Each structure stands twice: as C-alpha cells, then as structure tokens.
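hiii so my PI (J.) wants the whole complex modelled not just the main chain, which honestly fair. so below is everything: two entries, each one labled with what it is. i double checked the lines twice but i was tired so who knows lol
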Amino acid sequence: MWQYVVYLWAVPPADVLLACPLPAPGEAPDPYGVFDPSAVAAAYQWAVAASVLVALAAVLACYLLDRESLSRAFVRRWWSWLAGTAVAGALVPLLMLYVVVPQHALAGTCDTNADAFAATFPLALALNRAAAGMVWTGLAFAAFSLLLTRAAGWHPASGGLFHNRGCPWPRVNPFGA
Amino acid sequence: MGTDLVTSGIQQRTLTFLALGGSGVRSIEPLLYLCAFGLGPRRLRLVLIDPDQSNAAVKRSRELIETYRETRRALAEQGAADVYFRTEVIDGAGSSLVWSPITDDEGLADARFSTRVDRTLMRGRGAALGHLFDLLNPERIRGMDLTMGFRGVPSIGTVFMNRLRDESFFAQMLSQSQAEADGVFFAVGSIFGGTGSAAFPVIGRALADGIKARDGGTDIAGVPPQRIGGALYLPYFTLPAPETRDAPDGGPRPETVLFAQNAAGALPTYLTTSTGYGALYMVGDSVPREQLRNEVGGEKQANDAHYVELFGALAALDFTARGGEEPSARLPVVRATAVDGRDPGWADLPLDEASRGRLVGGMVAAHTFLTAFRPDGRAHPDLSGVLRGVTWAGLLKLTPEELAARTRALDGMARVFGSAWAWLAELRRSTPALALVPASNGRPTEVRPDELIEGRAAAGRERRARHTAPVVFRYWNEAAYAHRGRGFPGFMEVMREGSERYARAAFAENVTLKGAA
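here's the output for the full assembly
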C-alpha cells in the first residue's frame, strides 16, 4: 500500500535487464545482465523526494508570489502552476535516472564484463516512471495546496496562503466567475 | 488642526441642519455622503426651507434622503448600521421634508406676492399700509410668482420667513433641543441671493428667541447661541446672460452684478449685531464659477455640484464635532479655512488625519463596492460565484449566497455610493474642480483602485502596481481576522477597516497631514 502511495504504479523494479557488452573475440556471449537494483531504487527514491520538494516549492511560489486575493486570475494561475508542476514531476525521475544517480550494471551479472559498468536505463521504464511522477506531483500539488491553505492559511501571517485559502476548495473552477 | 469627525464625540450628538434656499439645499448632498462614509453625527435632523419646491436641487436632495434612509433601514434590520450609514436621518419639517414659507392655510393657487400678503384686504383702515406696500414694491415685484423663489429679493422672503415661529414642527424642534443638551443647530445658505439671505437672520433669531406663550400656554425656551452655528456662502457662482430680461412671470431674475453687493451689504449684519448665531463660517471662492444655465426656479434650475457646498457641509460637521462654542466665548466666533491653489484637493480639506483616513477609506470602500458587488451600480450576474471562497467571507462565516441575498441593503448602498460617484464626477469636471477622485475619467469599473485618489505625491517618482479589487480584498481579509464569525454586521466593519488599511498603504500621502489644511 505504502509503495503505491509513494510510487503509484511505478514501484522500483528489482531485476531490470540490460544488454551486456559484446564479448571479446573467442569468448562466449552473454546477452543479458541486470541493473544494480540498489541504484535503481535510489534513483526512484530520490525522484520521490525531489518531487515532494518540487510540489511544495511550487505551491508556496504559487500562493506567496500572488499579490491579490482569490481573483479569477489566481484560480487560473493555480491550474497553470499545477500543470507546470506536473510536467516538472515528469522530468524529475528522468533527471534522477539519467543524470543524478547514473545507473549501472550489478557487478558480476554479465560474463562479458563483470564490473559495475555504466548502462543506460530503459526508456520505456523511465517513461513509465515519468508518467507516474507527473500524476504524483500533480496530486501532491493539489494535496499540499489544500493542506497548507487549511493549516497555515488560517492566519494572516501566512500571506498568500491566507489570502487565497479558498482555492482549490471551494473555488476550483478556472472558468467560473 | 483639522476637524476630528471620528473621536470628538460627534458620534453621540444630534445635528439639526437647516438648509436655506437652493444653495443650502445643495449642501445636503455632500453632508449625506459624509454620513454614509461614517463621518456624521448620531442623528441628523433635516429642515429644508425653500419656496421653490420643484427646484432640481430640492428634488435631487429629497430622492437622496429617501435612498439614504431606505438603505440605513435595510442595514439596521441586519444589525449593520453602526459603521457606514451610521447617522440616523430624521425629518425636521414633517414628512414633506421641505418647509415652504409661502404656504398658506387657505390653499390658494395664486402664488403672487401681492396675493400671499393679502394686498386686496389692505383697504379702508389698512389703505395706508397698502400704499406703503405699493411704494416699496414695484409692479413686477408685486406680481412675482413666489413658487419660483425669492430671486435675489430677500426683503420679500423676510416677510414670510417669520411664519416659521408659528409652525408646530419648529416648536417641537425647540422642545427636543431641551432634551438633547449637546445637540447643535446649523443653518447653511447663501447671502447673495433671495431665500438664503432672507432666511438666515430670521432663523438664527427665531432659534435663539424661542417661542413666547400664547393663549395661556407655556414659553418654549430658545437655544443658547453657542449651540447655533451657520455657514454663509459668499458669491461662489455667477449666472450666464439670460435669454430674456424678465422671468416668465414678468418678475425679476437674480442678477450676477448684484451678488457681491448683496453679500457686502449683508455681512455687517452678522458681524456687528446679535443674530442669534454663536459661530459663523464664511465660505466662498475668489473665482466664482459661471453656472451652465440661468433658469428661474423649477426643474430646469439644475446646476452641477460645487465644492463650496461640500465645505458648507464640513462646516456643519465641524461645529457639531466641537459641540458648539464655549459659552464664555465672545460670540459669534467667525471661522474660515484657506484653500490653496485654483483647484482644491485633499490637502485643502479641513480634516484631521483620522477623519481624512476614514474619508479616503470610504472612497475606497465605495469604489470596491461599485466594482465587485454592484458593477457601476448594476446587479452582478454572479455575485455568489465571485465571492465563493474569499477569505474575508469565510472568516465572517458569511456565505456568498447569504451576502447576495441582502439585496435591499446592497442595492441601497449601490445607489448611494453610485450617486456619490456621480457627484464627485461633477465636482471633478467643474471649474474650479475639486480633485478628490478621478470620477470624471469614467465609470467606477474603469478606474483602478490604485489610481482612485488624486494628488498622489509618488506619481512618477515611485512605480505603483496596477491594482484590482482583489488587492483591496487582501486588506479586507486582514480586517476580517479580527471579526471572525460576525456575519453581515462584521462585513460592514470589515469593509470599513479593510478599505482604510488599503487607503493608508496605497495613499499614505493623502491620508497623512502635511500642514496644508
């Protein structure tokens, strides 16, 4: 259950196959090795942490940078921020898997190269994680918005969270008055 | 030092305001707007004195008085009449609001001067009186239709003004003054025309004298002079050349060339003899404005508002705020306020900082109301939708549907605020102009909150953000935090407090006194 909350449908896969390097002349080929599951899990976990921060920062920026109080423009901006955050949420796992936590083979799983050599994570899996990240971050943005406007937004000192506490609820329709 | 209309005790006092003639009646409009913005006394008893009851100024004032009272009633029913519209407006002259000195008990349709003084009865033993009457009044004066006013001939008006002493409402007013120990009386009128010039000295004297007992009755004591004040309008307008020399009834027209002479002739009366007044405010303009038309009475005599009329209303409130003059003072005390420059503005208003803040805040509140609640005075197609989720409404526990359902109160406020906007636009367009609000630039929805108040010192020096009504709502939200759960009465408090907070933040230079006033 917890796994689904944290990762939605894209939990860190345990045995992701990779194509082993070609054998040296005269050696037997070994078509498949395995990505190091700890590196994969680390990238997934960092993606979750980064997504949380992105969603939180986006919520704070959306509310605190506003100089008005629950105008129609703000409700539309809130939806824009949500969409932007969701896109960022999709990019975060890609950034983690390909840049921040470079993936590599699990040492000894390829006969052709027993080292933990660098390997490119499968795009299909990465896109699956990106899709989950997009949904996850969008939901987190809405949840944080609701939570912060209800929790911190009761006091004027919370600035925009106080002044726009009616969004996302009950003012959620971007096409309304 | 400006007048303190917020903390001086004015909120507990009763002001009996006597509007004399067309100019005096025109001061009722700014007075009611000041009351609507919470700067008035607790009670305002109005007495309009004008023989020309169809005058456009009388009609306009009557309508506004009725709208104000209807609005206040609607707010009071909701327990929300303690902030804006705080002042209770009472008829001083009965339900007709206007007392006409030429009204006769016989209901004569003929309103000629000679008829109303029963010239035809001046025969036999009264023949000498008839001859004297004819000598003093040429034919064109004798035949004047008095329903068109006294038209710069105050000597006629004085004949009729003393009838006031016989009116039951006047006796009642004097009796009430005994119970209202700190209530004050204030008369406003011009001393260069007809009705005001005729009424001003008679009113002061009649109030101070009281009523002597008749037919075994008891005396009604007069009002102490220190509680009677007045604002004398010196010539502040001129009239364009008329199309015809005489009025439609063959009688005279008011003549501009005589205005200054009339005023100069009348002033010594007030300064050297006892006319009953404890304080006199001289109000005028060194550059009289030419009126748009030269009409003799009636609905066509509709001229734009003039800032002098606002200063007359402020004089009445100043006198009320003082609670009259000190009994020991040498009376009458004469007061004057200097206006700097050609077009007066905020710096010229004789108000202290708190009162100025309230007035600027009132303008912000009215503008916000006419932008968000009743756009340009019209019903909002989806007010509930606009207010859904707004912080101040949530804190007040006032649902948008509940607020929108207060139609009578909201419509009334829209009418009064809309009327104030139109009045400010007239003043802004006028020459000289009163530069308070750029109302002449368009309808309320066409003016942004940050450009609402004129004379911003920061213009060009400091970039101002472009504001909309939801920016003002931020200040309302902060005010609402202190009024949580107070519903509709709290809404009125929030509107005032929040708008004043915005005014202090956005227009500090207009709220803060710089010694100009």
